[in-house]
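Q: What does the predicted 3D structure of GNAT family N-acetyltransferase look like?
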Amino acid sequence: MIPSTPAPDLFELRPGLQGDAEQCVGVWVEASAARDGRHVEGVAARARGKFDRRVAWTVATDSAGGVVGFALATRPGSGIESDPPESPVLGLLAVDPRAQGSGLGRRLLEHVTELLAGQGYSRAVLHVLTDNAGAVGLYERDGWVPWGDPVEHSLLRRDSQTYVRDLTLAVHHDVAGTSTPSGPRA
């Protein structure tokens, strides 16, 4: 059960498991519908196809164990042609609409970024709809920078901007709560 104004630390983060995929797709569909004001045909099928190409997957669960958010990154080359080569793609990041605004999206973003840095990737890429101001703000505050010109999203027919994140600057939060740089060093 999701409280009316949940704090991000009320949710447990854990690695995604194969059995979580359909719940994650459901969260993706509902979050997309909340963003777009309607359900769009093809969103679920497009999301399902990304789970087989994953290199990092984090799931947030509520006290009952239900999936309330997740972040999924896919292998390099699984985005668009103009993406930086050898960069994994943060292809899906979604929070149940009832938990949006709680800070959980930021927590998921930071965690999946740490996972990618820990795997030795030096940068990652994502694509965001340019009219999704909340997501654009989240990514920019977290150090993601625009890459190239906007392109039309193939399903939604709206402008999408590629963003890149230098993972050598990713921050790791240890058990004591202090922050230390993680990932590859120059």
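A (community wiki): The structure tokens above were generated from the sequence. Residues 21-36 form the longest helix (16 residues). The chain has one domain: 8-181.
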